Amino acid sequence: MSNRLLPACSILLLAGGRGRRMGGQDKGLIEWHGRPLIAWVHETVRALTDDLLLSCNRNQTAYAPYADRLLSDEEPDYPGPLAGIRAGLAAAHHDWLMVLPCDAPMIDALLLRSLHAIATQDRLHPLMVRRSAQWEPLFSMIPTHLAARLEAAWQAGARSPRQVLLALGSRALDLAEDDPRLANLNTPELLER
Ligand SMILES: Nc1nc2c(ncn2[C@@H]2O[C@H](COP(=O)(O)OP(=O)(O)OP(=O)(O)O)[C@@H](O)[C@H]2O)c(=O)[nH]1
Ligand SMILES: [Mg+2]
């Protein structure tokens, strides 16, 4: 069961950020309990897809072992995670794109299987994790046939993944606000945990 591919699902790991709160470090490559953050996420997702994409804007050589294909943003200067999602949707080989951040090392495969199972009950809409009232577009599933609509939103100036996925009719997967599997490591203090 745990080694089974998620049907029709590409996975995109987002590691294309500036890492300002980490002093400008490339967050996915920061070590946490002896390994880069991206290695923890990679270990969890590797067996789930045969189309593993990774969005990064620097250090391509270091990231290469953690994906089948690397993508980078078309626009310079870090336009935000929607740029990575846009590139991922255009590149994905499968009907669905699962989007995950590079800095959530405690994400687990059971949660990702649930996200996939619930999303694929409905072929039309994205599914986003929601914690209390907070939508989390970087833990999401997007049907790749929505690429053209996302592209239109991008061309119209949209840059917020949350707003775009809501406009595309995203459904919610409700999880507890303090669900440890979703913990994001955004600052050096959090790395001490
Ligand atoms: N492709 C791409 N991904 C991004 C961009 N900005 C952020 N991300 C990714 O989106 C996810 C969530 O972003 P943040 O947690 O804010 O990370 P960050 O932007 O590197 O960090 P801060 O500069 O401190 O906000 C991370 O996995 C980032 O790598 C971007 O401009 N392009
Ligand atoms: Mg950011």
Automatic annotation (TrEMBL):
Keywords: Cytoplasm, GTP-binding, Magnesium, Metal-binding, Molybdenum cofactor biosynthesis, Nucleotide-binding, Nucleotidyltransferase, Transferase
GO cellular component, one term: cytoplasm
Residues bound to Mg(2+): 103
Main location class: cytoplasm
EC number of this enzyme: 2.7.7.77
InterPro entries according to UniProt: MobA-like_NTP_Trfase, Molybde_CF_guanTrfase, Nucleotide-diphossugar_trans
Enzyme class per UniProt: transferase
Record-listed GTP binding positions: 14-16, 27, 73, 103
Signal peptide positions (record): none
GO molecular function: GTP binding; metal ion binding; molybdenum cofactor guanylyltransferase activity
Reported cofactor(s): Mg(2+)
A biological-process GO annotation: bis(molybdopterin guanine dinucleotide)molybdenum biosynthetic process
KW Acetylation (keyword) present: no
Cited SUPFAM superfamilies: Nucleotide-diphospho-sugar transferases
Pfam families in UniProt: NTP_transf_3
Compartment annotation: Cytoplasm
Domain MobA-like NTP transferase residues, every copy: 12-165
Gene3D superfamilies: Spore Coat Polysaccharide Biosynthesis Protein SpsA, Chain A
Catalytic activity as recorded in UniProt: Mo-molybdopterin + GTP + H(+) = Mo-molybdopterin guanine dinucleotide + diphosphate
Domain comment as written in the entry: The N-terminal domain determines nucleotide recognition and specific binding, while the C-terminal domain determines the specific binding to the target protein.
PANTHER family: MOLYBDENUM COFACTOR GUANYLYLTRANSFERASE
Subunit structure: Monomer.
Function statement: Transfers a GMP moiety from GTP to Mo-molybdopterin (Mo-MPT) cofactor (Moco or molybdenum cofactor) to form Mo-molybdopterin guanine dinucleotide (Mo-MGD) cofactor.
Family per similarity comment: Belongs to the MobA family.
Record protein name field: Molybdenum cofactor guanylyltransferase
Source species: Stutzerimonas degradans
